[in-house]
Write a structure and sequence with these properties.
By secondary structure, the chain is α+β, with helices and mostly antiparallel strands. 62% of the residues lie in helices and 20% in strands. It is built from eight helices and eight strands; from the N terminus they run αβββββββααααβααα. It has a three-stranded antiparallel beta sheet. Strands 6-7-8 form a three-stranded antiparallel beta sheet.
Length: 316
């Protein structure tokens, strides 16, 4: 290999190194912090950039996408002096790459430590029974405290989520026992309330049944009484009309004889019916004398006719 070739290769390598150091392509959602001679010079956004070789140096590379940071499990003491193991996840985003580069030596480490201390403080304010139902409140308080501290660093804390809250096994067993007792208590109460409501509904149904039955009987009696009254009135009216017609018939020619015939027929018919109903009869001796009975009946009719004109005269 000749000396000229060696020099050419060296120059070529130097050119490649210079191009590699000066031509920079920044990916989307990324930002590079450039220092010139040890001082902050610029923040390179996404795209192609050319730097001064050996003068400009890319010191920090930041991702502008939302980042999830795992907060390790730690022991927290509740207000009622119970130790619980709590871990979580923190979501943050770099808003200012320059302040994120120079605001803190390691902002992720600082944020994790601050999240753990804030979480211990918030857990210490509440009792164990409320730690599970106050998770949302605890998350909000941690985010608020971290957001205040990380603002000078150019970091935005978006949210914090508690993953697990693990009480000691003995406390957990006691909580499960208490929960089981509460559920059994609610079950007994609900059963008794159901039986009470069923008894009330049954009694109310029986009450309504008795009331409806009595109203039905009342209405039935009213209807029967009204029907009986109407029947009595109809029978009385028909009887009066019949008697009136009989009386009118007696007054005409041949009416008296027709009455005699009718009385005789009725007497014979009733006497025949009486003989059919029993084999043994005890009758007065005059019963067999049809003529005497007809005469007696006609005598009554005659007295009635005699009284009627007198009564009409008095009434006039």
């Amino acid at each position: 290999m000749t000396g000229a070739l060696v020099i050419f290769i060296a120059v070529l390598i130097l050119v490649v190194i210079i191009v590699a150091k000066t031509a920079v392509v920044v990916p989307q959602q990324n930002a590079y912090v450039v220092e010139r001679l040890g001082k902050y010079a610029a923040t390179l956004p996404a795209g192609f950039h050319v730097l001064l070789p050996f003068i400009d140096v890319i010191r920090y590379r930041h991702s502008l996408k939302e980042t999830a940071v795992d907060i390790p499990e730690q022991v927290c003491i509740t207000r009622d002096n119970v130790q619980v193991h709590v871990d979580g996840v923190l979501y943050l985003k770099v808003l200012d790459p320059e302040r994120a580069s120079y605001g803190a030596t390691d902002y992720l480490f600082a944020i994790i430590q601050l999240a753990q201390t804030t979480l211990r403080s918030e857990i210490g304010k509440i009792e164990l029974d409320r730690t599970f139902e106050e998770r949302t409140h605890i998350n909000v308080q941690v985010v608020n405290e971290l957001d205040k501290a990380t603002e000078p660093w150019g970091i935005k804390v978006l949210r914090y989520e508690i993953k697990n809250i693990n009480p000691p096994q003995d406390v957990l067993a006691a909580m499960e026992k208490q929960m089981r007792a509460e559920r059994e208590k609610r079950a007994v109460i609900l059963t008794s309330e159901g039986e009470r409501d069923a008894a009330i509904n049954t009694a109310e149904g029986e009450k309504q049944q008795v009331i409806k039955a009595s109203e039905a009987r009342k209405q039935q009696q009213i209807n029967e009484a009204e029907g009986a009254a109407e029947a009595i009135m109809a029978i009385a009216t028909a009887t009066a009309e019949g008697i009136r017609k009989v009386a009118d018939a007696i007054q005409i020619q041949g009416g008296y004889e027709a009455v005699q015939l009718r009385v005789a027929e009725q007497y014979i018919a009733q006497f025949g019916e009486l003989a059919k109903s029993s084999t043994t009869l005890i009758l007065p001796a005059s019963v067999s004398d049809v003529g005497a009975m007809i005469a007696m009946a006609m005598n009554v009719i005659g007295r009635t006719q005699a009284v009627s004109p007198a009564t009409q005269g008095r009434s006039n």
